[in-house]
Structures are given as structure tokens and as C-alpha cells.
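C-alpha cells for chain A. Residues wanted.
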């Protein structure tokens, strides 16, 4: 099994390009199920989760053509079965995103119920309730969500509590082909929701309000394919910026969308980093100074993203001063804390808050990746630790970070993939 070996201590300098956003690519690929003609998706990141989604579509008989530049053309005219099997769903919970499109387009869907998850219980009750509210009959049988609807789904008023990103996305996709108007209240405002809505609008959907907490969808009878480029990955960008705030140096990230990173940028500035940006680039300068500790609380967009929480725990572990990091989105997203503690970090957990006493330096150690963002936090810790860090189970990292060791190496890090 692959591992990452990092010899800490290098300052990061240089320029890299951001990859396409995983959490935008996944719903957009699922949306291809709604179209009567092929959907072309560009700027797809080369990630295990994207491969899993393509495999999922392929397993239904959908024709997926991939070009060298990771542009994919998805043609659903050859679809044979409407079944998202457990073998794929268990490796990627976002498989639930095919539920809405399958029901809306083919009036039937069987999606394996996702099981437990390393970051919390993550139920899918809101997805199921929403499909029921739109007229579907949904039963749980043999570990599967079995859903069907007579005729088209019907527009409905859906109120999310709590706010759910993929829940909102499932409803937007289902409502796009439903009969009548759907109003989503307390909708997720994440930029990836806007990206999906923009793609659906290109396909002929009538969607208003994406990016606000009320989204109104007027169902249409058919959607066509289109050509769409996935937005840049704000979490990937945020992760590299945080790395530089820890190591020092100057790094420019091109193909970025800084306007979606406001909460992260504000916190990075409080660490002492200087940040400059234009419409499609962002640059961080940290010089040689140590970061100052920053306290934060995660929340749905536009609050500080839970997907950046682990990386900031790493930063605070070596920062000047004490801090608290409070997680409000997922109940168990602190698996990285014990691993960073193995590297000497002084962190204690009290409920959903990590209390961190910044120390001068971490010590390299063998550590274990437990989920995607936890893994990223261990890479950052390894970059500043004294001596070698070996991160095991890095398949978690490959789910969400494209060529992470190549990008970091280009910036001067001493990192390599070993087996
Ligand atoms: N929730 C329910 N019932 C539901 C759905 C969600 O109670 O039916 C709860 C969850 O348990 C959680 C909260 O609602 O406490 C918010 O979860 P949400 O549904 O928004 O999460 P998600 O849609 O499953 C997406 C991202 C995650 C990201 C979260 C929060 C995708 C594919 N995944 O998950 O990304 O952390 O939103 O922003 O978009 C990652 O990339 O590492 C990742 C985990």
C-alpha cells in the first residue's frame, strides 16, 4: 500500500495550478443522468472519487468517454440499470447524488444505503424525505434505498434542517425535471451548489437563487447535454495556502477563484500571512515568520469550511500562542488530533472543540491517514516536522488531492510516494 514520506523543514516557493473541484465534479457528473444528449465535463480533477463516480455511471451502462485532458463525455442513452451498488457506494458516500437524477429521469432508482463514516454518522434521511415530498415512494430494503415514482416527480417545498450540501444538490437535480415549481428553503449556499446549478442551466434547467438560502426551480420537460468546465477546488487551494502559512515562503496559485475563499483568507491573514489575489489567482507570502495561532468555528458556507478544519489544527499545533478549533458540521471530525499528538502536538479535545497549545516544532513520526482532510492535515504537519514522517493509508488523500506530492515537490517540499 502506498505511503507518503516527507522530510520536513523545506520552505515552499513557486507557482502551481489549482485542480477542478471534487465536490463540484461529483454532482455535475451525476447530473449527466438527466440529459437526453451527451454532457461534456471539463477541468475534471484526476481523483479516486471522480473515477468512482465514472465507474458508478459505467456500471449502470452509461457510456463514458474520457479524453487525455480529463474532459469526459457522458452519454446516458445506453443506460441499462438504475442501480448504485453497495461496492461503489461504500467507497464514496457522494454516490447518493444519483438518487435524484435517476428518479427524475427514469422514475426509478436503487441506491445502496451508505454505511458509517469516519467523520460522523452522516445519515441520508434528508435526501429520502425530499424525494418523498416530491411524490416518490421510498423504502429501505436489504440495505438499499428503493425509490420509484408514477409519472414525473412533483415540485414541492423542501426545507432543509440542517442545511445539507449534497441534499440541496439532489433536490436541485430532481426538481429540474419535475412537474411544477420546487422551493428549497435553508438551501446550502456552497459555491459547488452554484456550479452545479450553472451546469444545469446550461443544460436547459430553470433555476433561480443558487448561492442563496432559497433556491427556486421551475421544472422543465427535458434537459440536453452541454459543455461545462468544473470550478477550481477551493479546499485544495486553501490547503496549499495553509501549508505555506506553516512552512514560510511565497506561493502563487493560478486558476483559482479567491472570492470563494474569504473565510479561509481572513484566518490566514490573522496568522500573519500576506495574501494578494486577482480574479483567477491568489498568492500567499509568509516570509520566515512563524504563524500566529487563530481560533475558529466551522459552519456551512460562507462560514469557515469544515473541509479546512483539520489543516488549521495542524497550523495551530506549531503556531505562536493558544487556540480553539470548534467543529459544528460533523460530530466526529477530529481523528487527526491523535495523529498530530503522535508527532508531539499539544492538543486536547473537549466535546466538539480542540484546544491547542502551539509548540515550537513537531517531530516526524509514522502516522495514519483516517479520512481525506485529516490526511491533508498530516501532510502539512509532516512538512514542518523535524525528521521524516511516513503517512500510511494515503488512498484517502488520493480521493481528493490531485498529484499532491508532485505539486508540493514543485514548490520545494521533500516528499515522495513510497510503497
Ligand atoms: N445530514 C443529516 N441528514 C442528511 C444529510 C446530512 O443529518 O440526510 C447532516 C450531516 O450528518 C452533517 C450535516 O447534515 O452533520 C451537513 O452534511 P452535508 O449533507 O452538508 O454533507 P455532505 O453533503 O454529505 C458535503 C461534502 C463534504 C463536506 C460537507 C460539508 C460533497 C461530495 N461532500 O458532504 O466534503 O464536508 O458537504 O461542507 O460535496 C470532503 O470533501 O472531504 C467532504 C467530506
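Reply:
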Amino acid at each position: 500500500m502506498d505511503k507518503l514520506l516527507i522530510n520536513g523543514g523545506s520552505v515552499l516557493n513557486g507557482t502551481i495550478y489549482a485542480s477542478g473541484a471534487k465536490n463540484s465534479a461529483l454532482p455535475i457528473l451525476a447530473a449527466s443522468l438527466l440529459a437526453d444528449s451527451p454532457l461534456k465535463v471539463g477541468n475534471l480533477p484526476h481523483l479516486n472519487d471522480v473515477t468512482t463516480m465514472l465507474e458508478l455511471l459505467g456500471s449502470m451502462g452509461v457510456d463514458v468517454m474520457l479524453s487525455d485532458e480529463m474532459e469526459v463525455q457522458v452519454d446516458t442513452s445506453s443506460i441499462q440499470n438504475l442501480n448504485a451498488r453497495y461496492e461503489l457506494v461504500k467507497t464514496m458516500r457522494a454516490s447518493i447524488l444519483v438518487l435524484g437524477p435517476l428518479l427524475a429521469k427514469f422514475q426509478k432508482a436503487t441506491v445502496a444505503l451508505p454505511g458509517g463514516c469516519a467523520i460522523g454518522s452522516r445519515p441520508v434521511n434528508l435526501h429520502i424525505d425530499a424525494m418523498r415530498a416530491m411524490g416518490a415512494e421510498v423504502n429501505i430494503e436489504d440495505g438499499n434505498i428503493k425509490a420509484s415514482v408514477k409519472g414525473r416527480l412533483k415540485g414541492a417545498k423542501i426545507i432543509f434542517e440542517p442545511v445539507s450540501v449534497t441534499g440541496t444538490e439532489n433536490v436541485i437535480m430532481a426538481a429540474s425535471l419535475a412537474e411544477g415549481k420546487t422551493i428549497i428553503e435553508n438551501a446550502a449556499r456552497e459555491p459547488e451548489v452554484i456550479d452545479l446549478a450553472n451546469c444545469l442551466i446550461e443544460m436547459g434547467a430553470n433555476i433561480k437563487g443558487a448561492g442563496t438560502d432559497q433556491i427556486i426551480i421551475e421544472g422543465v420537460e427535458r434537459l440536453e447535454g452541454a459543455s461545462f468546465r468544473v470550478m477550481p477546488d477551493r479546499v485544495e487551494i486553501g490547503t496549499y495556502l495553509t501549508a505555506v502559512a506553516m512552512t514560510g515562503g511565497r506561493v502563487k496559485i493560478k486558476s483559482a477563484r479567491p472570492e470563494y475563499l474569504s473565510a479561509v483568507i481572513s484566518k490566514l491573514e490573522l496568522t500573519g500571512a500576506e495574501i494578494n489575489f486577482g480574479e483567477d489567482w491568489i498568492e500567499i507570502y509568509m516570509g520566515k515568520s512563524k504563524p500566529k495561532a487563530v481560533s475558529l468555528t466551522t459552519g456551512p458556507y460562507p462560514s469557515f469550511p469544515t473541509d479546512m478544519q483539520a489543516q488549521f489544527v495542524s497550523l495551530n499545533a506549531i503556531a505562536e500562542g493558544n487556540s480553539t478549533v470548534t467543529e459544528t458540521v460533523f460530530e466526529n471530525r477530529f481523528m487527526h488530533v491523535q495523529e498530530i499528538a503522535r508527532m508531539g502536538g499539544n492538543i486536547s479535545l473537549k466535546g466538539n472543540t480542540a484546544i491547542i497549545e502551539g509548540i515550537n516544532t513537531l517531530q516526524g513520526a509514522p502516522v495514519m491517514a483516517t479520512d481525506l482532510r485529516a490526511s491533508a492535515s498530516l501532510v502539512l504537519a509532516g512538512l514542518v516536522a523535524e525528521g521524516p514522517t511516513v503517512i500510511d493509508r494515503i488512498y484517502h488523500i488520493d480521493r481528493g488531492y490531485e498529484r499532491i506530492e508532485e505539486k508540493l515537490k514543485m514548490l520545494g517540499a521533500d516528499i515522495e510516494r513510497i510503497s
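The chain has a mean pLDDT of 96. The pocket of EPU is lined by residues 23, 26, 94, 120, 122-127, 162, 164-167, 306-307, 329-330, 372-373, 400 (CB under 6 Å).
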